[in-house]
Amino acid sequence: MSGSGEPNGRTGGRPAFHANSRAAVLDVIRAAGTISRVGLAEATGFTGATISTVVRRLIDDGLVVETGHAESTGGKRRVLLALNRSSRYAVGVHLDQGGVTYALTNLGGSVVARVFRPGGSPDPEAMVAGMSQEIAALIEGVGVPVDRVLGAGLAVPGPLTRGGGMRLTPPAMRRWEAFPLDRALGAATGLPVVLDNDATASALGEHWSGGVGGTTTFAAVYLGTGIGAGLVINGVAHRGVSGNAGEIGHICLQADGPQCWCGARGCTEALAGPAAVAEAARADPAIAAAAGLTGGDGGDDRPRSGPGTPAAEFAAVARAALRGDAGARALLEGSARYLALAVRTLANVMDLEHVVLTGPGLAVAGSLYLPVVEDELSRTFFARGAHGVTVRLSESAAGAPAIGAAALVLQSELVPLREGLRLPETMPDATARPRVTG
């Protein structure tokens, strides 16, 4: 985008100027809560004429409303603008080995409805059919008109491919390899579908809903079935070439460490992830008994949905630790130390100032991990002489991927989705936006 805010070229059948200025203006209004046209011009650097045109179109589209006046400063009182939060909605879906979480949010990112369905069919096509039914029921259940739903965001563990499949998948999700998940869900629901990594989705959810305040550059460290991180830089998600940036779960912490499912050794996930914690707990009869882990040997052939998943067993160990079991607590503190090393590496590489701990695992065990990560960064972060790193727990850690998936759709409204945007399979830069289909 040029300095005038009026670049050449076209996007989605409209001038690129409209899409880009629309994006900036809507994002500033969202972040500010209420703001005047003069304030928008100051915040975006756009001319008054550009702001006037964009705001008029946003009001005509029902996305923005005038909501009173600012206090007088001696002249004419300025009209304040705000998002019309009930004007648009988005569905977020988080597919994980333990089940599927669905969330419906309004334009401001507030959750209107949320539901979790454990387990599910191991057959991808049957699973997509069930997901489509759940999405329809979620929308109908709260009485939101379907024409106000912009689309569905889909968050998956990854790693992702540009074709929409998960070419390299965790052992429990092998049936999803190369399955065109986003296209299949778009065809089943009739909605545009945005696909992204669950950690990146979580980070965008924090940004869109205001969970990080005015911070626009931060990392969301995610602990769910596995370990990952989402990166937001100046308000924009950094995805890397293929959408797999932030994979701190596969930073090597021990060159001769345990084998990881990704093919490497000594990865953070192999040392500290939920599966590693569950396996170690099962190997200790006292911890297993305290956590209520019975039956099975933790191998890859045991059931992977419902209460037998590594994520569920990790949560059971965490609850035992929080109840005061010393063995369970020591096990989780060991996991936290490994995670802290990976977070420190990420903070050093990105020169971070803010880190959010999120995901279902940290929704349960965050109080045990937070002080360990804080201590590691305060003592050993490379740039600590220049600035510290603030670490906090997400307020919506349990449902973060689904909420963030909905935020992907809301953010895509800035383009917007329903104006025919398509990204080519061979696009040289996949960092700008998530994949859109439907």
Overview of the molecule:
The structure is a single chain. With 438 residues, the protein is of the alpha/beta class. 39% of the residues lie in helices and 19% in strands. The chain has 13 helices and 16 strands. Strands 8-7-6-9-10-16 form a six-stranded mixed β-sheet. It has a five-stranded mixed β-sheet with strand order 13-12-11-14-15. Helix 1 (16-32) packs across helix 3 (48-60), helix 8 (274-283) packs across helix 10 (310-322) and helix 10 (310-322) packs across helix 11.
Q: Structural class of the secondary elements?
A: alpha/beta
Number of strands: 16
- Give the fraction of residues assigned to helices: 25-40%
Strand residue content: 15-25%
Radius of gyration in whole Å, from Cα? 22 Å
Strand order of the largest sheet: 8-7-6-9-10-16
Largest sheet: 6 strands, mixed
Pick out the low-confidence regions. 1-19, 296-306, 415-438
Coarse morphology: globular
Q: Which whole number gives the mean pLDDT?
A: 83
Distance between the termini: 27 Å
Q: Compute the number of helices.
A: 13
Order of helices and strands: EEHEHHEEEEEHEHEHEEEHHHHHEHEHE
